[in-house]
Specification:
Aminopeptidase, Alpha-Beta Plaits, 3 domains, 16 helices, about 25% helix, about 25% strand
């Protein structure tokens, strides 16, 4: 595979080429895009590709040996000697074919080869593939500026995968849909030095959890932290067994969220199902790591900048730093994201805020020119990241991760918002060690995410508010007593149609509503079908139920007599009286932090 074909197939720079290193006799990937002296040395940024020697016959039938180089081109002994540079030097990159001359011909007066693409501007380099990964602290962006089958195979060998079966609904990802990735940081103590943190024999529970929602148009993203000590119901889930069979693991009501992983043999697919049950969002993929990820990734990037509003000396996490700005890595970085006795009221919720600040700083570092323009640093980061990751089989190769990363990297950091599931102290406990869902605040937040509404102000969202679909909601509304509707249940809520009719009649005064039981098939989105002369009724019902304009389906002929509209509840319906669409703005009291702004831990 030569650099020219890679550039066409995988969108990598054709200037990245495999060149012969006479010291080793192997070919190495040159990522230095300069057009310098061809006799200069090249620093390898990836595993070497050995030359493959093949027997061939010359004109007189005698066997001789040729070498197939990294570009897939045969060369005999005579050609190997041509154009070789000084002894011990790495030959320069070969030129591409062009109308100016044969392959390898140089332009007169210049060291740059004919037909070669000009050097990219720094801004263009940002468009190279970025690898999205996770850590115990959550997730970080890792630059992946490498090319070639051999490197993909190298990273594939680093990855661990888990088959979660039907837990995710997408094989890889849909370019024309939102993407939901669950980042799981476990408390498993494997790895050098980590047994000293206690709980040595732990199978690993869901210690740090972030649901990363990327919008359909890739203009914004929401990173939703889920407290590990939140009391919830874990649903039944299926876990693949070593022999390939599936085992149904019974659900458990009223337990900590972190028991959705590890306990009773539950795998990450069970955690994905638990998140879906809580938020109503389908989780497409997961990325999971343990303690080592924080140490390895923070070191690979050269340290992460943090700010402390006060000095910290924590005997439990062993963090000992004065107030001010610091660059931390390795054990010190792990201590920072693990400490829970140094900030706020020393709760896990305050530790989540500190972790979010650390992650935001890591993202800014990953997207800096200092990182994106350094092939050596990019390779080290990608190598460390893939070694730290366990992912589902849907994204379980280096190439799939890189493709997914290209989508994720489109989001500007100023439009990445960190938030936390709203919770309350558990009223069932005298010592408040756990929390419970604050439904009044959580439901509108989850609805915003389901409706793909940004928590930040972006132009795409403003345009959406002015769309033709939302225009359907504007106009006169019928009185509740004049609204006539048949309700079908095509969603996930048992008895949803009956519950909705009871709510409409008792709370909204829609007495002409009828329960039609289950719909012929399940549907994802709630729909309201109406005739042209029922538009005022449709607008009234949409306002009551919080339906988006996209839910309204206008017919072609007018209704006659007592004909009713048809409301079919979908998977987005969460209960009677709960708006199907989320609010346009974040409800008051929701914790938020922006990835583009540095904050000091308090």
């Amino acid at each position: 595979m030569d650099a020219q074909s890679r550039g066409r197939a995988d969108e990598f720079d054709p200037a990245d080429q495999w060149v012969l290193n006479p010291h080793t006799g192997d070919y190495e990937l040159r990522l230095n895009h300069s057009g310098g002296d061809s006799a200069g040395t090249s620093q390898p940024s990836a595993p070497r590709i050995p030359r493959r020697r093949e027997p061939v016959r010359d004109g007189d039938g005698e066997r001789r040996t040729t070498t197939r180089d990294g570009g897939g081109e045969r060369r005999g002994p005579a050609r190997d000697k041509q154009g070789s540079g000084p002894r011990g030097a790495v030959p320069g990159q070969r030129g591409r074919r062009s109308t100016n001359g044969p392959r390898g011909q140089e332009r007169s007066g210049h060291g740059e080869t004919a037909g070669r693409r000009s050097r990219k501007a720094p801004k263009a380099r940002r468009k190279k593939a970025l690898l999205w990964t996770g850590g115990t602290m959550a997730f970080v962006l890792v630059g992946l500026s490498v090319a070639g089958y051999a490197l993909y195979q190298h990273f594939n060998g680093n990855l661990n995968t888990v088959d979660v079966g039907s837990a995710g609904n997408k094989n890889v990802f849909d370019n024309n849909a939102p993407v939901n990735i669950l980042i799981i940081g476990t408390d498993k103590r494997t790895g050098k030095g980590n047994e000293g943190y206690g709980d040595k024999g732990s199978v690993g529970h869901a210690d740090t959890n972030i649901l990363f929602h990327v919008s359909k148009d890739r203009t914004n993203a929401t990173a939703l932290s889920i407290p590990r000590d939140m009391i919830t119901d874990i649903p039944d889930c299926k876990a693949k067994q070593p022999d390939g069979s599936e085992k149904v693991i019974p659900g458990t009501p009223n337990v900590r969220f972190n028991e959705s992983l590890g306990q009773e043999g539950r795998n990450p697919g069970c955690t994905m199902e638990t998140v879906k049950a809580i938020t109503g969002l389908q989780v497409d993929h997961f990325m999971m790591v343990d303690f080592n990820a924080v140490k390895e990734l923070s070191t690979a990037v050269g340290g992460v900048e943090i700010c402390l509003a006060k000095p910290v000396k924590d005997k439990d996490s062993h963090l000992d730093l004065p107030a001010g700005e610091h660059r931390i890595q390795g054990e010190q970085a792990l201590a920072f994201v693990r400490t829970r006795h140094s900030f706020g009221n020393e709760s896990d919720l305050d530790r989540i805020k500190v972790q979010q600040q650390f992650i935001a700083s890591m993202i800014r570092q990953m997207q800096s020119d200092d990182t994106l323009t350094s092939p050596t640093k990019l390779f080290k980061l990608a190598d460390a990241a893939t070694k730290a990751l366990t992912v589902d089989t849907g994204i379980g190769t280096g190439k799939k991760l890189a493709s997914l990363a290209q989508e994720l990297a489109k989001v500007n950091t100023k439009n990445i918002t960190f938030t936390t599931v709203p919770v309350l102290d558990n009223p069932a406990e005298k010592i408040r060690a756990t929390v419970v869902l604050n439904t009044a605040k959580a439901d509108p937040l989850f609805a915003m995410m389901r409706e793909d509404t940004s928590l930040t102000e972006v132009k795409a969202q403003k345009k959406k508010a002015k769309s033709k679909q939302d225009a359907l909601l504007k106009g006169p509304k019928a009185a509740a007593a004049d609204v006539r509707v048949d309700v079908y249940n095509g969603g996930e809520v048992d008895g949803g149609a009956q519950k909705t009719v009871v709510w409409l009649q008792n709370n909204e005064g829609v007495l002409k509503s009828t329960n039609k039981a289950n719909a012929p098939a399940k549907i994802k989105k709630t729909t309201l079908e109406y005739a042209p002369n029922q538009a005022d009724q449709a607008r009234a019902l949409a306002a009551m139920m919080g339906l988006p304009g996209s839910a309204l389906k206008k017919g072609t002929t007018d209704a006659e007599g007592l004909q009713a509209m048809v409301l079919t509840l979908g998977a987005d319906f969460k209960g009677a009286g709960i708006p199907v669409t989320g609010p346009a703005k974040v409800p008051d009291g929701i914790q938020q932090a922006n990835a583009d702004k540095a904050e000091c831990a308090k």
